[in-house]
Amino acid sequence: MRFEEIDITHLFLDVDGTLFNKKKEYILGSGSIEDVHEFFRYVTFTEALKQGNEINENELIEKVVEEYHCRIHENNLLEYTARFSNNLKRHYHDLVRKHGSNGKVFTHEFETSPGFFAKIVGKTDFSSILTKDHKLIDTIDTIKQKGIQLGLLTTERYDTVTTIANVLGLSLDDFVVNTGAEYPILCSENVKEKKPSLEGFQKIITITNATPNKIAYVGDSLTKDVHPPLSLGMNAIHVTWKDHPLRIRGDYVEMPTIYHLSEVFK
After folding, report:
1. pTM
2. Hey, what's the torsion of the CAs at 157, 131, 73, 83, to 10 degrees?
3. pLDDT tens digits, residue range 162-175?
4. Which residues are within 8 A (CB) of 224 and not within 5 positions of it... i.e. 6 or more apart?
5. 217 strand-pairing partners
6. Contact 196, 224 (CB under 8 A)
7. By the 8 A CB rule, do 168 and 130 touch?
8. What is the Cα–Cα distance from 183 to 178, expressed in whole angstroms?
9. Which residues contact 56 (CB under 8 A, 6 or more apart)?
10. What contacts 258, CB < 8 A, 6 or more positions away?
């Protein structure tokens, strides 16, 4: 498969871990997105263990977010996270493997409402972690100039995507599609089943009214972003954020950074 030989009309992208490298520290001393997520996981889990099945969700969220802003202000988030014991971390990750996701750890173990942990992660201060990405802006402009319709399919909340786009210097107007719902992108508000569920990918095919082989999806996870669209006849592009050349892996493209999209669609 070579994209120069395929008439791609629609390109949909994941957000978290795709538009940016969540393991990279963009601002010296602020940590990475993954560092912040680790902080939220362990602090929330510790507080939930203290409260047991008598969790007051609003109070717990407020407490975790207050601690987060304190650590950001004092520039010691990494040091604070390092205080959590290896036993607690292993216990938590065992539960993630058992239940399948971070959010389900809290809904199954502590009977919190759906979306509880997503609300906490949604409090991430992206302006303290990410910066305007001129190279990404140029990459998106290059794709637009080729007449390819852009869109987003993400498990993030709409307000989170809006914040991320603003910080990176992207305009969500470039990704607007007719979703048939309130929000102009495919996000957690209008796609109920998280990837690797096929729901979101099937919606892409429906709302674009395009044949699957004219659609490509870009993401950073093989299991969530590559295998599902391939199963529906779509094209897939895997962003690895690793040092290797742009290459074809059987029936999908593997590229080291999001910026290599410009080379994929030469």
Report:
1. 0.88
2. 70
3. 999 999 999 999 99
4. 14, 195, 196
5. 12, 236
6. yes
7. yes
8. 9
9. none
10. 18, 19, 20, 136, 139, 218, 239
Q: What are phi and psi of 198, to 5 degrees?
A: -85, -5
Would you say residue 203 has pLDDT above 90?
yes
Give the Cα separation of 157 and 164 in Å (integer). 11
pLDDT at 228 over 60: yes
The 10s digit of each residue's pLDDT in 8-30 is 999 999 999 999 999 999 998 88
Q: What is the per-residue pLDDT across 147-158, written as a single tens digit (0 to 9) for each?
A: 999 999 999 989
Integer Cα distance of 125 and 120 in angstroms: 11
Structure tokens at 3: 């994209």
Contacts of 145 (CB under 8 A, 6+ apart): none
Q: Please report the domains of the chain, with CATH numbers, ordered by start residue.
A: 3-20+131-264 (3.40.50.1000), 33-128 (no CATH)
Place of tokens 């950073």: 220
Angle ∠(60,61,67) on CA atoms, nearest 5: 90
Q: Please give the angle made by the CA atoms of 56, 59 and 64, to the nearest 5 degrees.
A: 120
Sequence-distant (6+) residues with CB within 8 A of 129 are: 26, 27, 30, 31, 32, 33, 36
Question: Looking up tokens 């990750």, which residue turns up?
Answer: 93
User: Sorting pLDDT into bands at 50, 70 and 90, what band is 4?
Assistant: low
Q: Evaluate whether 236 touches 248 at the Cβ level (below 8 Å).
A: no
Per-residue confidence (pLDDT) for residue 1, from 0 to 100:
47
Q: Rounded mean pLDDT of 91-99?
A: 98
Contact 225, 240 (CB under 8 A): no
Cα distance between residue 266 and residue 264, in whole Å: 6
